[in-house]
Amino acid sequence: MTLDEYARALGxxxxxxxxxxxxxxxxxxxxxxARPMGVPYGTDIYSFPVGSELPENDITSYDSLGQLLTxxxxxxEKRGHAQLDMGLVDLRDALAHGRAxxxxxxxxxxxxxxxxxxxxxxxxxxxxxxxxxxxASQKARVSAAINQVREQLAG
Length: 155
Description:
The protein is mostly helical.
């Protein structure tokens, strides 16, 4: 896998994570008792300049992907539906905070992530070879979650 292919594969996976998070926020925002947006319907939230203050709600909250998945899964449990894979949080965190490198130039990159240090030691929490097949598999995992949330939004 060339560096250009790696960049495209990584970009595609990250775009899927962005889509998943936004869909989760949209789903949670539609639940009964959700905090109102606080801006008129149809307002382009991307039009607010840096420094603007908006009301906190499911779209604007500081919730992490893990928190969003937990809230979604709690609602799915109430409805008797399948829950989303919480392992997606580990994948997203490894992509955001892990270290990617190869033993030699033009070799397949490996992604490794460590937890917070305890008593001067760290534990390996993620260690994967990022092949084309690996990227395809991870993208399929995130796409399946996106489709599951979409189905709930449509239903």
